[in-house]
Write a structure and sequence with these properties.
The chain has one helix and eleven strands; from the N terminus they run αβββββββββββ. It is mainly beta. The protein has a single domain, classed as Immunoglobulin-like, CATH 2.60.40.2230. The strands form two sheets. Strands 2, 4, 6, 7, 9, 10 and 11 form a seven-stranded mixed β-sheet that branches. Strands 1-3-8-5 form a four-stranded antiparallel β-sheet, with no helix packed on it.
Length: about 160
């Protein structure tokens, strides 16, 4: 009976960990909230969930988020896609994340003036040519990351 309970605990722990092991975007040290009208360092956490290396990550920047700079990441290059001078996507490529590894990629951005939620869509490219699109709603198998924009110190 004790072995059964221990095995069940292990399975539940692995399942709970796996549910959080998707590409996620965190403002300032792992929070899920950021104040409106602020400057925030966002961190994109990329785990490898397949037995194949990750070779590229595309992060689509939500409307209202203004990216000012990307932190260099040794072994990786970044490319910025813009529309009318505003950064709309960051691509990190050139490096490799092996199975059971993760890494974090950072950038500095201004948050919107309005409160609410912003959704971060990300595409994760694997060496076998497969792509996982982290673009679904929170209850799907491939959810996008969500940041809540809270009231801040906006001036009119």
């Amino acid at each position: 009976m004790l072995r059964c309970a221990a095995a069940l605990s292990l399975v539940l722990m692995i399942a709970a960990t796996g549910a959080q092991a998707h590409v996620r975007v965190f403002p300032d040290a792992g929070n899920t909230q950021a104040p409106a009208c602020g400057y925030t360092t966002f961190v994109v956490r990329v785990p490898v969930e397949k037995p194949i290396a990750t070779k590229r990550i595309d992060l689509h920047i939500p409307k209202g988020i203004i990216v000012y700079g990307v932190q260099p990441k040794p072994g990786w290059q970044y490319n910025l896609q813009t529309t009318r001078g505003i950064i709309t996507m960051i691509t990190w490529s050139g490096g490799r994340l092996l199975p059971h590894e993760f890494d974090e990629f950072a950038f500095l951005a201004a948050t919107p003036k309005v409160t609410g939620s912003v959704n971060w869509d990300a595409w994760q490219y694997y060496e076998d040519g497969s792509i996982v699109k982290w673009t679904g709603n929170p209850k799907t198998e491939t959810p996008h990351s969500v940041t809540t924009i809270t009231s801040g110190h906006c001036t009119k």
